[in-house]
Every structure is written in C-alpha cells, then in structure tokens.
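agent> call fold_tool(seq_1)
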Amino acid sequence: MKGKIIRAVAGYYYVFDYEDGRTHQCRARGIFRKDGSKPLVGDEVLFDLTHTEDTEGTVDEILPRKNSLIRPPVANVDQALIVFALKDPEPNLSLLDRFLVLMKRQNIPAVIVFNKDDLDERDTFDGIARVYRDCGCQVLSMSIRTGEGVERVRHLFDNKTTVLAGPSGVGKSSLTNLLCPDAGMEVGEVSRQNRRGKQTTRHAELFPCGKDSFFFDTPGFSSLYLDEIRPQDLKMYFPEFEAYEPSCRFTGCLHLAEPDCGVKEAVRSGTISRERYDSYRKLYEELKEGRKR
C-alpha cells in the first residue's frame, strides 16, 4: 500500500494511508540500515500491515524524493512558509536571510509571513516587505490574534505540502492549530527576560489540512548554519544580484572588494537593499572563516 510518513518518534514511523485516511504505526525494515538510508517525515512510502485488520505494519520502500532538508529532516516539500513576528519577538532578518538561502539551495519556493500585525505600531512591515519583494519573495502579514490576513495565508496551503519554518514564539503552533484544530499543538509564550520564544514543537510532524494538502510544523530555530555552502557560491542564493552581474568588470566577481562591481553600484543607488547586501557580506565572511577551521 502507498502512504505518507507524517510523524517519526522513537523508531516508529506513522504512515497516513491514502486509501482509508487512517494512520498506521510502522517500523522500517532492516534493509534501510544496511544501505545507510533512513525514512523521513514527508516521504512517500510503500508499506504493509502486519495483519489485515491491524494498524501496525512495516515500511518496505521509500519512493523517489523530489527534495529533502537536513534541518528539519523532512522530504518532498512543495513550498516553505517562513513565519516571523513583527514584534515580540522583534524580527531577526539575518536569520530570515539564512532560511531563504537554505530554501533557494533546495529549489523550494518561499513565502514570508509576518505575524502579530496588530502590534506593528511603526509600520515595520511596509519597509521589510519592500526589501524582500525585491528579492522575489511573496511577503504577507497577518494577526492570528485578530484573524486579520489569516484566510489569505490559509489558501497558500491548497494542494501543496508546506513546511512551516521560523524561530520560536512567532505563532507557528498557533497557526497550526487554526489550520488543523485536531493537532492540539502546545502554544508557548515569549520569555520576559530576553523576548525570545519558548520552544514548544519537539519534532517534525506532518498534518493533513485538506485534500492533497499537508503541512509540517517543525522545531523553531535560534540559529541556522549554512556550512555546506562554499563561500564563492553564496551569491547564487541572493537572486536580486543576478540582473547586475553583467555590469561587473570581472567574471566570477564576488561583489566584495572588486572594483567596478555592478552589484555594489546597485547597492549604492538603492536598487539592491543595503540590509540584504550587508547580510550577504556577513554570511560570506562566516562561511570563509568556517572553511579555515
């Protein structure tokens, strides 16, 4: 039978059966350990039940993946919904850029959603939205507390498998509960001491939210490492650079110390966001230093 792994806990894989809509608790066959592979949440699999009327079984085969992520360890993602808050906690745009690089590297389209729009007294969203729309992302705002913008976000999930990503305390679990009330996700508070969110999600889990629609809720991150990327390749994951690279004097320009750089000129003229360019430089130096260790 064909199904989809929706949760993995303590060596058990919980497989959603496409035919009857039930979830079966399965173990993976030993062959996966022998060839070094491991089923992931989101995998399409072939499985057998131990007995015809039993809800337990075995995962026999992992079907070909369209993509996979390492952190969180999930597979077959159609899009990423990257959730940040406009306030409480304040948006960490450096972390947002890391998420975008990671998704771009995996060819996963990203939509950025800022929650807590009702707390945005300084019109923070308008400025941030301009920056990230210029780099090719859809950017939306909502307030889970008031319901403003939630329906528009809900429609993004139609007929797709979506990964929810973002730091703790921004409302991912609350959004999960809105989309799938049966999920019963624990909702955390923001720490008064450092204004960071408290972690509530313990493992990646996939929830059905309509016909052919699933979404992951994943553990939040306070940092995200990109050490698998070569420093010279980082520019490929800042798509707003591409249009200005033909104006660079040198082929393979890194847009750092080189003279006559089309990208740096676009930054000076305001066509490319200074914040995004500074984020690129910071990430480049981080990757470069990491290679020396």
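agent> call fold_tool(seq_2)
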Amino acid sequence: MKAFLFYSRYSLAYLFALLALLGAALGDAWTFLGVIGLFVIHPIWDHVLRTRHVPEARPKSRLPDALLIFALPFMSVFLFTGVIHSLEATALELAGLVLSFGAITGVLAINTAHELVHRREKPLRGLGVGLLVLANFAHYAIEHVYGHHKNVATPEDPATARKNEWIYTYHFRSFFGGLMDAFKFENKRLKSKPVWQRFRHRIVWYLLLQLVLCLAVYGLYGNSALLFWLGQGFVGVILLQTADYIEHYGLMRTKKEDGFYEGAKPLHSWDSYQVITNYSLINLGYHSHHHLKATLAFTELQEQPGAMKLPHGYSTMALLAFVPPLYFKKMNPLLSLHQK
C-alpha cells in the first residue's frame, strides 16, 4: 500500500486525460476541457501550491514500470474514443477534440515514450515506439536517443533552441532537422550491415506503419476521423517540441581547440522542480540529471548542483514560449547570468 500511494502521484496525467474524455462526452464547447485542464488548471495549480518537488526515498516496487506499460493500451483506447466522437462532431467540437486529445498525446503518450525509449530492455523500448506511432512521431525514438543526447546544446542539435529564436521557426527546424538526422543515424547503422539486412531500416518501417494506421483510420471512419487522428498527433508533437525548446533554450557547450565540444553538464539544461509539473510529467523537470545518465528510471532522477532553474513549471513556460517577447524578457536575464 505504501508503494501504491507513493507512485500513484505520478499518474496525474491520467487525471487530465479523464477531463478530455469528459469533455468529449459532454460535447459542444466542453470538448476543450482537456486542453483547458492542462493550460489553465495545471499552471494555476502548479503556481498556487508553490511546492518544491523533492524526490523521496523510493519503496521497491514494480509499479513505476507498470504505470509506463499501461500507457500504450490506455492511449490506444483513449484515442479510439476520440475517433468515435469525431465522426459526428461539429467544426467547433472537432477543434476541441483535436486540441484536448492532442494535449494528452503530448503529455502522456510522447512523454512516457521518452522515458521508455531510453530503457535497456528491448520490450520497453518497443512500447515506447508504439506510443510514438500513435502520434505519427516514431522517428523521435532514433533521433532523440542517438542525436539529441549526443549533440545537445550545440549547433548540430536541431532540438536545442538558440537564444532569441522564435518558437514558431524552431518547430520547423526541430521537426524536419530531427527527421533528417534520424535517417542519417539509421543509414549509418545499416552501412556496415550485409545488403540483405538493409531492409531493416527502422525509420522507413516506422513511416510505413504510421501511413498504414492513417489509411486504416480513413478507410474505416472517413474524413473527420482522419482529421482528428492527424490533428491530435500534430498537437502532441508541438507540445513535445515546446518542452524541448524550454529545456535547453539558449544554452550552448563550448567548442574546444581540438574541434570537439566540452561534455554535457548540468548547466546545459533548464530544470523545473514544481511538484505538479513533475507528478504529471514523471519527473521530466529533472532534465539535467536525465542528460547526465539517460538510462536512469524517472524515479531515480535527482536535482543536480549547477543546473539552470526555470522560474515556473512547464505549462506556464509553454504558454510564455508562444509569446516570444514575453519569453525572452523572462528568460534572457537568467541566461545572461549563466553566460557571465
């Protein structure tokens, strides 16, 4: 019971998923309830509590992995429910469904996938890819692990936001740059393989699987369902890339005389220790420790000395990021302190 009570707090994202389902059931403007939960209720809750999340002694349990494993069947049923509700939705309702279900795709599906694709166990990595396929974003499993973690905080990393870079242009560079890098990494992996093994190109297979899934949704349910399916994935990807934007904004590693970059340090990531942020994003706020040791489970992440600290939780920072002048006004003075 102690372990259940301890780890159940990390299921907070499921609560926001239930809000999205409730909104879909009520219809009309209520379909926006899920996105309102994440970008109105969540930041207010995070701010009002003003509680600093402090990792506690962790009871031994299989519950953390069970929570991660449960995400794939849950998201499959969750998104299927969204497809069904989209069939007779008005334009207003469809917009609400796309935003609300897409927000959950970003917070629950892609964020859980981020945790899983780093695991050493192949079945868990496979579950992570499965979650990413639901968002039409499976190449992230390759690019993030082999690209972002190697090149973070350098000009070679499309997921590292430059100082004063508007998030709107960043999204294009991050997505298409990441996709190109994923192809490069996979091509390099297969280059040394025998010719008959080169059909095992993971990016190609991921894209084909996503295409088949999209065609299945369209073939079975029609235009509205396909719009919902593509839309929720798009919103989920935008939220994930927004988190990437926030996590490394303006931070760059020094290039040494030998042409190599200094190793990644805690000061090359922005951390967030707000309690609601970390309970809903399974400790994503301890991002500097994640970059120091990517295979650590989320329950093992700790605050690192020297890490850059965000002034607010992720939901508030995301809202600020979409108004670049406000974001720069808030973050650039903090960045200047780092650069001195």
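agent> summarizing second result for user.
The mean pLDDT is 92. The radius of gyration is 20 Å.
agent> awaiting next instruction.
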